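Notebook entry, structure prediction.
Reason for the run: the old model in the group folder had no record of what sequence produced it. Starting over properly, with the input documented here first.
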Amino acid sequence: MERQLAMQTLALTYWPPIYAFLRQRGHRRNEAEELTQAFFSEIVIGRKLFEQADIQRGPLRSLLLIALKRFLIDQHRRNDKPVFRLQMPIEDISHEDQNLQQESALEPDTAFDRRWAIAVLEEALRRCEQHFVSTGKEGHWSAFELRVVKPAISMGSPPAHELIAKELCLGDPADSVAAVRVVRKRLIALFRQVVAETARDPVAQQSEYDDVIEMLC
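New structure, fully documented this time:
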């Protein structure tokens, strides 16, 4: 049960890059969804890709893309029964499609890398929120969300610290500034942590970190 839960967590983090690659390759929504399911069932879970991948040969991002391309080439030879069912909510798939429509000119490999970088950031954000909520500092996270996360998503201007402090009853603007600074520091550390989990040695981890940052820009 523990392994199944761990695999489900990994799958929920990294299925969007797979789906993005398939959609940019010209597969229709239903086809891309079915192929994503099959890839995770047969390759990622069935062959324990995450557990057996030799990260010394390269970051998990590159190994996963190579495995996906081989999977597509060999697809017609496989008749394995699914061993795993990935939970892909319809609203999440619709959200991915909306984002892909805005980047329709991207090559499949570029779409994969771009969505991988976003997935890493989303996972770091999830862990960051979880940390501050579990430690009783929801106000810190809320200030960061209002000042940084929501404006980044909407591409709008961030609200003034005076407004954030008033809305969250933080005391004064300086408290909002301090809270955002603390969360940003924690997020950077968690972002590095998530990246480090996909590469083995420090040099490769730094290289992957630099690459992911570049993909997000």
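Summary: Residues 106-217 form one domain.
The old model has been moved to the deprecated folder.
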